[in-house]
Amino acid sequence: MKRPDRGAGNCARNHEAPAACHETGRGTPNPARNKRTTAAVAALGLAVTLAACSVPGAGGGTSDEQLAGGRITKPVSPDKVKKLGKTDLRIIADSGEQGFLKKFVPLYEKKYPNVDVKVETKAFADFSKTIVNTMSGDNPPDLVQGNQGYGVDGLLVQSGLLRPIDDVAHAYGWDLDLPSGATSQLRWSSDGRIFGSGNLYGISQSNEYVGVFSNKKKLKKLGIEEPKTWADFTEALKKAEKNGEQPIMLGNSDQYPAEQLLGTIQAQKQSVSASRAWVNGVPGTTFATEANRESAETLRDWAKKGYLGSGYNGVSSDDAVTKFTGGKGVFLVAGAWNAPAIGKQLKDDALFTIPEKPDGTVAAAGSFGLPWHISAKTEKTDAAIAWLGMMQGEEGAQAMADAGRLPVRTKGVTMPDKLAERQAAAGKRLLDDDGQTYYFDWASNSMMTTIGSATQDLLTGRLGTDAYLGKVQKDWKGFRADQEKAAEKKSGADK
Amino acid sequence: MTSVSPAVKEWARRQYWPAYLYLLPGAAFYILFVLRPLFTTAWISLFDWDGLTLGSWAGLDNYTALLSDPVLRSSLLHSLVFIVFYALVPVAVGLILTGLMVRIRIRGLAVFRSLLFIPQVLSTVVIAVSWRWIYDTDGPVNGLLRAVGLDGVARSWLGDYGTALPSVGLIGSWIMYGLCMVLFLTGAMRIPRELFEAARLDGAGPVREFFTVILPALRGEISIALVLTVTQALRNFDIVWNTTTGGPGNSTTVPSVFIYQGAFVTRQVGSAAAVGIALTVLTLVVCAVIMRVLRERKG
Amino acid sequence: MAQTQSPARVRPTPSAPVRPERTPPPRRSTMDGSRRESVVSHALLIFASLVALYPFVQILLVALHEPGARVSGFSVPSSLHFDNFVTAWNKGLFSSALVSSLLVAVAVVVLTILVSVLAGYAFAFFTFPLKGPLMGILMIGLVLPYEATVIPLYYQMKEWGLLNTYWALILPQVGLSLALGTFWMRNFFAGVPTSLREAAEIDGASRFQTLRKIMLPLAVPAITTLATLLFLYAWNEFLLALVLVPNNPDAQTAPLALSFFTSDRRNSDPGVTSAAAVLVALPVLIGYVLLQRKFISGMLAGAVKE
């Protein structure tokens, strides 16, 4: 924290605040005492403020620095990794990866015997709070998980803490495996201010998206087939409601589930590229599109008709899963990641699908799982690249499946149970159709709260559709303006 | 320098200068680990800073933005409501319980004290989960209401715009009342028996005894309890975050949510610092008023 | 037996025998009332305790279900299972976390009490310049929402090379706790009759001796309560531990271990989470119950000395 020119004057100003304290002292009218008081308090102020006066933060942006470990052109071989000698590969990951890591680390260590993998996992909320500090610290891990969007990945890129991996993607042929559109969630301009294009900074083997869970027995009782298309689905909702059942189980006290429900509806109506463009912050896009208006109206309509039951704003997403498996609600619109909890209770009766769009394709609110990044400061690039390469291959995919999660790559992978097979099939279709529409809350740092609370207001009719769309767009706009200002300042400073 | 006036000499004589030696150890910790970070925070609040890359000077922008944010303003109102639930209710309940425990011999006093202290011991995150179940549409509160025929009143307490705020507040009351009771009990044990006996000789009943003996004697404890609970009320974060996330809509948002989000989610550290400073000042003012009021009545 | 000897119980002092002779009339007159009062009071206390207990019991019961059971709310398990506790213990690395927490909390309590007793004594009895303003500055520490200062604190600790050490947890918490501690002790000392202090001064005791020989023994109950509170706060401190010890699993404290379950994004298991919560709370609860004896006898000691 070295300080440049400006602070001196402000520093002095800062001392005045504590000096004012003497006025609160009991007042013996004595000039000498007052003078001394002022002096003593000012001295105290000086002592504590000395360190405070410097522009906070460090200059980031090592964007034009050399690629850590040099550019690669072909997959890293075990022999090349061996050249590192006996070494550690330090990893910090989300605790949700524990199952996968337990399966995958031994495989990796077997293939690259000179590398000792040291893993630390943290629960997601803790992880996202500390990861930026950890990466910018003196001793960052070699491999780390981030999170799509500006809050984590964007900040890491802005500070030049991640190694771009376009060369790796090319060498391993990922650019052929993955739908090109979907990798935009891992791309950033090198200043970290433009999301969705530019260098590739991360990769993931996990596929996460929102779909429709249902209970086979319950559908049978109601005489409903598992819906194949969106029209089937809305028809089924009507029928369920007529039979006195709550059509959709929703637990929205965490505020994101209703947003994902809206995303599910919106995926049916808006084109995938338009959805992504808005999330990525493409100038000129807006949330107030005709398709979004329709989606918001549909959601409001469902709430009004009682499709979502009552009291959903006081139920957590976890408790919603519990209620659903306990027989409340015909459908549960939720992330595929809930499958282990649901499968355990409903066994083979658990159904899962993404309803088809009218044009026969599928699209859903979804993305890859938390992306893996290589630290820009690592000295073990080859070992880190080998990790990513192996993870994206068949062994990584199988380990993911064995851990009860959904791999991106499904070819040659055996899924553990029926529900997982259903999800894998739906997931493959989603990728083939390049139908991940991402999540609205990626659009800005504050969007999670903005859209979360606004959607609650929409559901209960406190916000009209137009006001709702406007509120979300206002947040987006404000954030774009901030990003542009920051990018300008940065390019100004670079000159 | 002119000759020192007698008044100053007299004043200096009355001072006990070695007192500073007693304060020194505490002052060292306090300056280094409270005041220094606090001043840095005040300094940061004048910047636009993401917590990592170089910040840029913003002057008072963070503060003016804060004043013009309607959600933040309503969150302050929520905080004031929380003062009732976190501070006033628990202090009242704590006083009543203490009054009961001091007057008569309580069988199993130790057991009661332990039980009443449980809410303070549990992690707030888990408390939040547990209360979410209590308030659930199918939970015990609604079950009770339906059992006595009040089906109309039953609702999702945390999901309803009208009831979410007081419902969250009641969780705070629940956490705090045991604490208040323990504070008051400690204080009440210091009350000389003679005072009770004198009051009884005057024919004072339990109520008058409470107001003439217990209450005045506990003034110091009450002011500490109020400062602690008011501070908690204004800083309240975990409970809100884990029960309602500030919803439905913004009906339970509190200023701490802005601090937390600014510092760790939206990475507007400067603006979070501004909210933090403003909140500190506000709490300081409220607590100063409490202490002043309680002190004046004494004199 | 309890009711009949009601108010005199806390005074097993030599002077006690004098009083009962003087008090019979009022005691008899309040006896019927006091029996009714006693029943009402006990009923109220039992109710208050049940209210305090219910959420905890709910958590405990959820934790005792078989692993993987998705329970929410009050539900008695058909048979007791401790698997959730085992899972929580192992996954949360509780064995080392509890030790770390204990170490940090004890250090914080001891240091805080030391400095607070000294400062509280000075604020209560001495006249010195800037007393009022200093008290005011101290009050800041009492009300500070330190969520806002934790990031500057992070950079400060980083600069001083204290990140990932126990010191990063202990030192700031002492700073934050001593505001409460000093107010608390000052309040207590201010309530001590001046006659006691004057008597000591007449005996020729220095101010420090008065503190050590007269005031400290008197302050045992106040200090015990303060220590309990400080211990609780230190034990449950989460955010500082998360931010200031980002990278050292060995110095991870119990609330962090708990957060490993509560902050989990997509794999939360109510049973294991509840078990973890009980694991964090139980040591404190047991300690508190054990302390009760000492606590109450400490109070009695205080009453005697007066």
From TrEMBL, chain A:
Q: Where are the transmembrane segments?
A: none
Protein origin, superkingdom = Bacteria
- Pfam families, per this entry? SBP_bac_1
| Stretches the record annotates as Disordered | 1-33
Name the InterPro entries on file. Bact_solute-bd_prot1, SBP
* The protein's name: Extracellular solute-binding protein
Which organism is this entry from? Streptomyces albiaxialis
Automatic annotation (TrEMBL), chain B:
Q: Which domain of life is it from?
A: Bacteria
Q: Pfam families recorded for this chain?
A: BPD_transp_1 (PF00528)
**Major localization listed first in the record, in broad terms:** membrane
Show where the ABC transmembrane type-1 domain sits. Answer: 76-290
Q: Which UniProt keywords apply?
A: Cell membrane, Membrane, Transmembrane, Transmembrane helix, Transport
Q: Which residues cross the membrane?
A: 20-39, 76-102, 114-134, 168-189, 210-234, 272-294
PROSITE patterns (UniProt xref): ABC_TM1
Q: What is this protein called?
A: Sugar ABC transporter permease
TrEMBL record, chain C:
Q: Which Pfam families match?
A: BPD_transp_1 (PF00528)
Which InterPro entries does this UniProt record tie to the protein? MetI-like, MetI-like_sf
> Which residues belong to any copy of the ABC transmembrane type-1 domain?
98-291
Please give the Gene3D superfamilies that the UniProt record associates with this protein.
MetI-like
- Swiss-Prot/TrEMBL keywords: Cell membrane, Membrane, Transmembrane, Transmembrane helix, Transport
Q: Could you confirm whether the keyword Transport appears in this record?
A: yes
Superkingdom, taxonomy of origin: Bacteria
Query: Where in the cell does this protein reside?
Result: Cell membrane
Quick check: keyword NADP in the entry?
A: no
Recorded family membership: Belongs to the binding-protein-dependent transport system permease family.
Protein name per the record = Carbohydrate ABC transporter permease
Q: Which species is listed as the source?
A: Streptomyces albiaxialis
